[in-house]
Structure formats: structure tokens, C-alpha cells
Input
Amino acid sequence: MIREIRDGNAFCICRNMLADGTECGREFVVPFQTCGDEGMDKILHTSINALICEQCREKEAEDERVRQGEEQKHILAESLSERMERTGIPPRFRAMDKPWTRPAAEWIFRHRNESLLIAGETGVGKTSSACFVIRWMMRQQFLRVRYYTRQTLIAEFVQSKTSDNDNELRFLHRLDQLDYLIIDELIGKKGEAKLSPSGQELLFNIVDGVYSWARGTKVWILGNFQAGSIDRLVDDPRPFRRRFQESFRIAWFDGDSVDESLKVFDENQTEED
Ligand SMILES: Nc1ncnc2c1ncn2[C@@H]1O[C@H](COP(=O)(O)OP(=O)(O)OP(=O)(O)O)[C@@H](O)[C@H]1O
Ligand SMILES: [Mg+2]
Ligand SMILES: [Zn+2]
Output
């Protein structure tokens, strides 16, 4: 409230009530020019009287930020299991609070903001680690995530092409909107048959999207890749291999270690190596 008006200023004292029930009492100054009109001056007077000091205003803004942060955290926690369900991640990988295999989970966590190509034998922790890290991130923020296997991805793609109210472009556009696209088991346990031509086209679109920065989507591709896997997957593996090597972080998971050398995908490597 105003204590004194002089020299074009209103000298005020802050009457804001603090948390402990006392008044702030800080002094502060605001410019005050009388405008000659008694009614207007009165209104100005009243509104200046209601002002609080800068420190109190900052404190209130900070309290509001904290309150909104708490509310956001609450909403994120409350909705986590429902949001995990909507990603398409299988139930057994949805609720992990701890990783099942530490080195794998740590590696993915460290590179969580990149596109990843994760190779490794069955049981090394590819799927569980990826899902663990996704869940960790989804706890902090709202992320658009879709989990597919090779089978479900191709099936949904084919369905979009044959459906009356959907098409190929729309399907790709939906993938484009994602923050994370996970393709699990691109290469299965016994190696896999070649992708159909339209499957190859889809995979190329996805991989090239990462390569050309057309999309902000991070793509995580998981599978039991072996030497020669990519050659068996597509007709012309070279553009795939180049894009994987240049735009993806590649790792070979092995029970208790992570190998980042690229030998698994080396062009000159043959199955016998
Ligand atoms: N509830 C559990 N708690 C701890 N570890 C588990 C649990 N269930 C399974 N595991 C183990 O976690 C490991 C990682 O499994 P995960 O499914 O992530 O492997 P993967 O690399 O995806 O294998 P695949 O190539 O067969 O899909 C396995 O060795 C499995 O035995
Ligand atoms: Mg798996
Ligand atoms: Zn104050």
C-alpha cells in the first residue's frame, strides 16, 4: 500500500501475507504521475495500493511453477500404465521398474535420444531394455511411442493399403508423428525370409527418414542380426547398410557387454566369418 507520494513516485510498503502469517513489509517504489482527473487518480491509487513487492511476485510465480510441475508429475504417473498400453508394447514388458539386464539397459539409456540398431542373441535383453528405457522416459514426459514387431508392422502397413479409409501415405504420416518407433524382431531367432517388395519399401522409407532427417522420429530396430542378415532381408542391402551405419548407433549386445564395433554389418563379412 502507498505510504507517501512524492517526486513522481509512490513509496509503498508490501502488505502481502507470507506463509508464516506475517506481513512482508518490504518497501518498494512505483512511478506515479497524477493525471489531474480526480476520479482517474483514485483508480490509479487503488490499484497501486493492491501491488505487492517484486520479491513477493517472484515467489508467487515460483510457487505456481512448482505447483504446475507437481500436477504434471501426478498426471504423468497416473496415466503411465495406460500410455504404455497404447504403445503396443507386450504386457510383460510394460511394467518394469528395474532393467532385467543391466549393460544392455544402460547402453540404451545412454543413447536414448538417438536412432538405434540393436543386435544380439536371444535373451540378451534387447526387448526388455528398450521397453524399460521407454517407460523411464514416458514417466518424465508425454511421448508418442509405437512398438511393432516385423509381423505387426507389415500387417498394419498392408491393412492401411487395402483399407477404404486409410492408405500407405497416411500410414507413413502416422509413423512420422511419433517420437519413438520401435521395430522389434526385424530379424528373428532363425534368421528370416526376405521382406516382400512392399515390406522392403516400407523399411527403406523408415530408415531413409532417419538418414535424411525428414523426421524427428527416433527409430529403434532390434533383432538377432548376424553377419549377412541384412543381405538376406532385402534385395539390395547397400543403401540400407549405408544408412544404418551413418544414422544409427549400432550395438551388439552380448550377455554382459556391449560391442559397438560394426563388424556384424560389415559389407565384406560373410556368414562363415
Ligand atoms: N521377470 C523377469 N525378471 C528378470 N529377468 C527376466 C524376467 N523375465 C525374463 N527375464 C530374462 O531377461 C532376459 C532378457 O529378455 P528379453 O526378452 O529382453 O531378451 P531379448 O534380447 O529381447 O530376446 P529375444 O531375441 O528372444 O527377443 C532374458 O534372459 C530373460 O530370461
Ligand atoms: Mg526380444
Ligand atoms: Zn513483499
Observations:
- The chain has two domains: 2-60, 87-265.
- The chain has nine helices and nine strands.
- Residues 54-86 form the longest helix (33 residues).
